[in-house]
Amino acid sequence: MSKVSVLFVCLGNICRSPTAHAVFRKMVRDEGFEDRIDIDSAGTAAYHIGKHPDTRSMQTARDRGIEMLDLRARKVDFGDFYQYDYILAMDDENYHNLLDMALPEHHQKIQMFLDYTQDYEEREVPDPYYGGAQGFEHVFDLVDSASEGLLKHIKEQHFSRS
After folding, report:
1. DSSP 3-state assignment of 134?
2. How far is CA 5 from CA 36, 68, 118, in A?
3. How far apart are CA 98 and CA 111, in angstroms?
């Protein structure tokens, strides 16, 4: 049985991508696929390497029954393009940064995360870092919806025949 691997990517890896990591991880566990799907998150910038997610992200997640204290920020590295099947950018800037970093043969792995939601018209997960609590709530809602769509897609594409 082959594993599917997913990497969520934002700029600093302290708000959006760790939220996606934690939300998707919980969904994967709840569905019983934790032994079949590897999940990680990273940033395209090295601003916060080794740090916990933003306290506002952690509080928003905790309020919804999800813990993410175990996550630490890291920067995308070249090996990620070989290791991950899905490399999901939170916004256009990081999408283009990832394309610039990757070899052409890995470009098909790089996608916009919100392409997996049908519930929202937005294409980008906005960076809530400089805003208030409502920004973190909105990010969580977007991420939750896209995570559901992503898990449905992965189950259909990779696990429907097993």
Report:
1. helix
2. 8, 19, 22
3. 10
Catalytic residue set: 10, 16, 127
Number of helices (H), then strands (E), in the chain:
5, 4
Each residue's pLDDT tens digit, 80-118: 999 999 999 999 999 999 999 999 999 999 999 999 999
Cβ partners under 8 Å of residue 89, min gap 6: 9, 10, 95, 98, 110, 111, 112, 113
Joined tokens for residue 125 = 């997960």
Taking the C-alpha atoms of residue 68 and residue 42, their distance in angstroms, rounded to an integer, is 14
Residue of 78, 10, 70, 72 whose CA lies nearest to 45:
10
Q: Quote the pTM value.
A: 0.97
> Do residues 15 and 127 make contact, with C-beta atoms less than 8 angstroms apart?
yes
Q: Residue 58 contacts by C-beta under 8 Å, 6 or more apart in sequence?
A: 52, 67, 68, 69
Is the C-alpha dihedral spanning 152, 81, 101, 19 positive or negative? positive
20-51 pLDDT, tens digit per residue, is 999 999 999 999 999 999 999 999 999 999 99
